[in-house]
Amino acid sequence: MLLVISYDVNTTEPAGEKRLRKVARFCEKYGVRVQNSVFELEVDPAMEAAVHCGLEKLIDKRKDSVRFYRLGSNWNNKVESIGRKQMISFGKDLIL
User: 62 — phi, psi (to 5°)?
Assistant: First the structure.
C-alpha cells in the first residue's frame, strides 16, 4: 500500500527544530521524500502501524501535526507528478 505522510512541526523554538530533524530522519528510514515535509512509503499493515506509533512518539501533539494518506495498493493511477521530482518506483519490475 502507498502511504503518503505530510507533517508540520512548529519550529519557533529550538526543541521544535530538533523534533523536525527527528521526524524527517525517521521518515527517511521508511520511504522517499517527495517534498520538504512530504514522504511516500510503500508499507504493509504492520509497517504502517510502526510508522504511526514512531511518529506519534516524536511529535508534540499540542504544537505539531502529521497527516497520513492511504492510497492503497492500486495507487499508480492516483498519483501524478509535474516538475523536477519524478515518480517513485519502489522497485517494481517493468515488463515490456
Answer: -80, -20
List the binding residues for Mg(2+): 8
Spatial CA neighbour of 9 closest among 50, 61, 53:
61
- Which amino acid makes up residue 70? R
Q: In the beta sheet, which residues pair with residue 65?
A: 8
The Cα 31–Cα 56 span in angstroms is 17
> Do the beta carbons of residue 93 and residue 37 sit within 8 Å?
no
Binding site residue list: 8
Q: What is the CATH number of domain 2-72?
A: 3.30.70.240
CA torsion 19-22-23-24 (nearest 10°) is: 120
More confident residue, 15 or 94: 15
Q: Is the pLDDT of residue 94 over 90?
A: no
β-sheet bridge partners, residue 40: 4, 32
Say which residue the cell 528510514 belongs to.
Answer: 29
